């Protein structure tokens, strides 16, 4: 398999569609087919949202995992749940506090796995709180494209997302799923 170095994301992640820039001769991100979203439950009902802007670098070679890495920076103010009133509330002090914490960051420390299934360990920082996390991701090369898919469950209270009255998990659940699909076209 070819060595993949691309402005892309294996995680958080985490966490967004748009904002991608390919920077190498090996691969180019397919923005139209790539997305990162979050799913949270409010009163037991799933709510989907996305982040519209982020910057990430992935160096990935399944034959050289020890040299592979991922780093993602997400513009927290680009949060979009589809309603500007809710977006403004979530960007505020009790939730993301984007004025004080404009970015969320994931930096990998190791990538392990085989046969297209990988565990990407690293540090996730949101709202000034850093946690060790492991992202379950899959990778496949399908003809001229590389596809990364994954899910990272986090607890929002571990990152102080939802303070004051919102810390209570009876209205908004503590668990949030960060989902991603990254598609890159391999250049020849």
TrEMBL record:
Cited Pfam families: YceI
**Is the keyword Cell inner membrane assigned to this protein?**
no
Heme found in the keyword field: no
The signal peptide annotation in the UniProt record is 1-27
Q: Which SMART domains match?
A: YceI
Q: Where is the Lipid/polyisoprenoid-binding YceI-like domain?
A: 26-185
The alphabetized UniProt keywords are: Signal
Protein name according to UniProt: Polyisoprenoid-binding protein YceI
């Amino acid at each position: 398999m070819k060595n993949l170095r691309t402005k892309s994301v294996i995680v958080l992640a985490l966490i967004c569609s748009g904002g991608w820039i390919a920077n190498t001769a090996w691969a180019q991100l397919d923005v139209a087919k790539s997305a990162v979203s979050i799913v949270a439950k409010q009163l037991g009902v799933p709510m989907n949202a996305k982040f519209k802007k982020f910057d990430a670098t992935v160096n990935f070679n399944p034959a050289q995992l020890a040299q592979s890495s991922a780093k993602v920076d997400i513009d927290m103010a680009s949060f979009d749940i589809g309603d500007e009133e809710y977006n403004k509330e979530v960007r505020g002090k009790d939730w993301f506090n984007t004025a004080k914490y404009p970015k969320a960051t994931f930096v990998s420390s190791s990538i392990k796995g085989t046969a297209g299934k990988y565990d990407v360990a690293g540090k996730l920082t949101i709202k000034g709180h850093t946690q060790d996390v492991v992202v379950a991701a899959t990778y496949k090369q399908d003809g001229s494209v590389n596809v990364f898919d994954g899910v990272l469950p986090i607890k929002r209270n571990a990152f102080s997302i939802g303070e004051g009255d919102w810390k209570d998990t009876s209205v908004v659940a503590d668990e949030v799923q960060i989902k991603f699909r990254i598609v890159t076209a391999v250049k020849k």
